[in-house]
Design brief:
By secondary structure, the chain is of the alpha+beta class. The protein has helices at residues 63-74, 84-97, 100-116, 121-142, 146-163; strands at residues 7-10, 14-26, 29-38, 43-48, 58-59. The chain has a 5-stranded antiparallel beta sheet. Helix 2 (84-97) packs parallel to helix 4, helix 3 packs across helix 4 (121-142) and helix 4 packs across helix 5 (146-163).
Length: 164
């Protein structure tokens, strides 16, 4: 059970703040919803309270996990299928899992692949989605700005180019 003011993560949307708890009637059924404001894109999301847990809603990561996310971003690309369809499905599963470390892997792998070979339109969109989810959580976890977090993430991939 979360309260107004709590920072939470909603898989596929990213991190945000619960700004209200409201009862709404949807499809003739009254239900309580968390109203979550996302810092990026100025969007609000309604999450049914009684299914929040099954939807994967969780608390924002702490400092130790933030360090691990940056560690993952700095690692080598992990093995990915050369088959576009399989790779896309595997990456989508990681993003949907709501696991920040899996999302960081997707961002790392797709960014490296984009720098090496370029990405298809679908994978570019997936990279943008994964990056937005990652950035939204890191912004809240570090009490930082979107620009600062993006610059830090990008720094991992600029250094790699210098090594070659």
């Amino acid at each position: 059970m979360y309260n107004v003011g709590d920072n939470v993560v909603y898989p596929m949307h990213g991190a945000g703040v619960i700004v209200a708890i409201e009862e709404r009637e949807v499809l003739g059924e009254k239900q309580k919803y968390y109203i979550m404001a996302l810092p990026i894109g100025d969007m609000k999301v309604m999450i049914p309270m009684d299914s929040a847990e099954s939807l994967g809603v969780r608390e924002v990561i702490g400092d130790e996990e933030v360090a691990r996310v940056y560690e993952i971003l700095g690692q080598e690309k992990s093995a990915m299928s050369s088959n576009w369809n399989r790779r896309y499905r595997a990456n989508m599963e990681k993003i949907k899992s709501g696991d920040i470390f899996e999302v960081a892997e997707v961002v790392r792998n797709l960014t490296i692949r984009d720098n090496d070979k370029g990405l298809s339109t679908g994978e570019k969109k997936m990279l943008d989605t994964a990056r937005q989810i990652l950035v939204s959580e890191l912004v809240i976890a570090q009490n930082s700005t979107e620009e600062e977090v993006m610059a830090k993430i990008e720094s991992f991939f600029k250094e790699e180019d210098k090594d070659e």
